[in-house]
């Protein structure tokens, strides 16, 4: 079934598109868009079919054609095609708990600037993945390639010309995916925004387990720790004791939250301990951190069952992926980053993030520098810390548009050998590029 594309008359577009959408929704027939991808792949011709359940014109926040559907067999997606198109495309990659609709501030910001915007649930869901053997975290890789190729081909059909530029954007799990995909698919993407993402599933979920088991030990004194940190941000709990003092076990647990060694599969090491000043977030997010593991640990490590009985929360807190069987570690490490960047990426990360340590951003900068050298890394990676922000927040959301603008200017600068655009700015908002936390 052919879905009518937008015409020049908004009223005609609306009625035609709604009639078509109603027919598709009622019949559940495929949208009929088998799109050739010869020009996008060096391999044999391929095609991706999508089934639409919504195809309609929407007028808010700006007039656009809205499509929602499934790329077989189970990856839900949405695509927004603005009437006033800027000629470019933004692909969004979701958070760990998100869906194709969980796009934060990116969708509105991109649409307002005239981008075609596309997102996917990437074929899996946090709360159900443990019960669905066909789903995997690694599946996101295939699904993001499919979404990008499908959207590029749809753009060509819809507007009669290809997108001139493709950005990849996301936060948290999507921040990891942005780095991961741009490292490995530089011909698909021109650059990315990778907000507060991790570098490895082992560093991410191993550190979450380390935080929750150590937090239990210091929980009775957490309010005192928070108050002392607020009164003196530079307080060193290992030099200036609380009154009454923390016990030796509590000091050790505190150290194990601040200092969590991590290592990528290639041997690169970094610290994913939570940073000083994030203590209030440990308290507010401790239940949420445990919830991540409770939902997903059976899928992270099917062998972990220390008592031979259904896992309890106390069991879950003891998980350490460095002690998991080699085949489990190999599977988790399929998402490890390499630092091999050839397209520019902007990272903004809160210094008080208790979920994904800002040490992941610091570690990634060091990883890219090891791979490309300091100047080479400076040319493709810009890191900005937002003091006091947790796992995202209003400060980040307010600067999504500015991040897009900075990335666009940086891509222009690189593609024109400096005759247009500008390198990554020294500041985005009031946040300085690559500040030191020490």
Provide structural commentary.
This protein has 2 domains: 35-198 and 349-432, Rossmann fold; 202-335, no CATH class. Helices cover 39% and strands 17% of the residues. The protein has 14 helices and 15 strands. The chain has a 9-stranded mixed β-sheet with strand order 3-4-5-7-6-8-9-12-13, sandwiched between helices. A two-stranded antiparallel ribbon has the order 1-2. The protein has a two-stranded antiparallel ribbon with strand order 10-11. Helix 5 runs antiparallel to helix 7 (248-258), helix 5 packs across helix 8 (279-300) and helix 11 crosses helix 12 (374-380). The relative contact order is 0.10. Residues 1-46 have low confidence and may be disordered.
